[in-house]
Amino acid sequence: MKIQVFLSLMLFLTFFNINAQVFTDKEFKFKITSNNTVEVIENNITYSANLIIPDSVIYENKKYAVTSIDFFCFSSNNSILTVSFPNTIINIKDYAFNNCKNLKSVQFANGILNIGNYSFQNCISLSTINLPNSLTNIGVYAFYNCNLKNIKIPNQISSIPSRAFANDLNYLSIGEKVNDIGSYSFGTGRNIKYIICNPLVPPIFSASNFENRKMKVYVPELSIDTYLSNSSWNRYILLPLTFEIENLTFKVKSDTTVETFSYLNNYNGDIEIPEIVKNSNLDYNVTSIANFAFKNCSNLISIIIPSSVNFIGYHAFENCTSLNSITCNALIPPTLGTQIESDNQESTPSNLIENVFINVNKSIPLYVPIQSIDLYKNSTEWKEFNIQPITPTNINNLAEKIKFIIYPNPAKTYVNIEFKKNKIGNFSLFNNLGSEVFNEKIEGNIRLSLDKLTPGLYVFQFLENGNLHQGKLIIE
After folding, report:
1. How far are the Cα atoms of 295, 338, 356, 385 from residue 380, in angstroms, in the given order?
2. 105 has pLDDT over 50
3. Of 21, 81, 238, 326, which has the highest C-beta tally within 10 A?
4. R_g of the chain computed on alpha carbons
5. Partners of 345 in the beta sheet?
């Protein structure tokens, strides 16, 4: 009996000693919380302006993972401007960064589970955060009285507590598992212009939220009738989150942009993604192609990507084995989606894999704007293709789509450019060698002199607001 009591006492003292042990490494103070983990605790010093929480620390020749931030750890510390967390952090406790008035940006890593009560309250300069998909809980007043304008609630969150994001928001995206929204979770919401609401079942919320009755709410297409019959949600402008046009499926990303996406493998032949699509009497710019969008479309022959696209998701064209040409009208090569080599790794430049065109024949031609060839040749994955300039024989004349006419064509000494709506942009001409021979800024209807140009076939390009439109012009 005495031996058992002695052993129990020794185990208790050992446990107490582990959990009470505190040490300092560089600018951080740590408390050991288990046999292989520590948490960052208050240190009462001036921290670096750009605070980077380490993922691990070595103490007495033993490595510990940094997994949590203690209560009040950095509270009221005005020297901190930015914070970056490693993927080992799973818990940010209550009041951890409360009242850090100069904190502007917080970078969370995928792995965090909890952001505690009042943890970033009164961080009045905080304007940028990214809430990772791993997050399962957000505390009350967590981001109260910050300077956030856009919030995207991740899919693992089921409840948004009271006043968690009481900011003057413009945009909100609600994850698919949210079923309850507390009072004033987003303040009064009077300035929110639109919400992307992913839950199939309308979340419950009090009348204190979302005062703007002119707000657009994008909801799953299959659930529109359910939202329309809900007395809390039917006071707003309800619109479909996804829609189909000419056999292409689009998903709303904002009140002005959409992405092309599909989970079906029935696309075949030649596809031209439009630059602008219209749905419910609203125009949207097509700015991205979703992850897996055309995966396994083994009968897809060619694809034309508009100049408005700036991002293509990972695996978007995987196994498009019949693809024999790609035309990308974007002046700047669209960013290609990446994945990390292992789910257990943190995203770093060294372990990210660009894998948009897996099993696509890289010897096929990739047609790009003449002046952007070098950019594509220096862009990862794009550079693997047979890059060629867009010429009159491989482009579609998009003049009609932007509602302008260019005449006479063929031309001799001048050419007229007339718009149905006033446009401002740059008009360029390229000869058959790809050299730019003419460039002039134009505003509205104009007559351009061609006296100094030799007869021949030219490519014209009109660039306005980042959108590139091309066609052919013959000078006699």
Report:
1. 20, 11, 11, 10
2. yes
3. 326
4. 28
5. none
Across 96-108, average pLDDT: 96
Q: What is the pTM of this model?
A: 0.74
Residues 6+ apart with CB under 8 A from 195: 171, 172, 173, 174, 210, 215, 216, 217, 218
DSSP β-ladder status, 180-181 and 159-160:
parallel
Of the options 2.60.40.3080, 3.30.450.20, 3.90.226.10, 3.10.20.740, the CATH number for the domain spanning 399-475: 2.60.40.3080
User: Roughly how many angstroms between the first and final C-alpha of the chain, as a whole number?
Assistant: 109
Q: How many CA atoms lie within 13 A of 277 on its CB side?
A: 26
Which CATH number does 19-211 carry? 3.80.10.10
Sign of the CA dihedral with 190 first, then 193, 194, and 195 last: negative
Mean pLDDT of the chain: 85
Q: Was domain 246-362 assigned CATH 3.80.10.10?
A: yes
**Helical (H) or strand (E) element with 415:** strand 414-419
**Among the listed residues 411, 421, 425, 433, the one whose alpha carbon sits nearest the alpha carbon of residue 470:** 425
Centroid of chain to Cα 448:
40
Check whether 61 has a pLDDT greater than 50. yes
> What is residue 10's three-state secondary structure?
helix
Q: Does pLDDT of 208 surpass 80?
A: no
% pLDDT > 70, the chain: 85
Which tokens sit at 459?
């490519």
C-beta pairs of 403-411 under 8 Å, 24+ apart in sequence: 404/462, 406/460, 406/471, 406/473, 409/473, 409/474, 410/473, 410/474, 410/475, 410/476, 411/450, 411/473, 411/474, 411/475, 411/476
Asked whether 390 and 327 are in contact (CB, 8 A), the reply is yes
Q: Is the pLDDT of residue 270 over 70?
A: yes
Alpha-carbon torsion, ordered 24, 26, 30, 32, to 10 deg:
-80
Ramachandran region of residue 31, left (φ > 0), alpha (ψ -120 to 50) or beta? Answer: beta
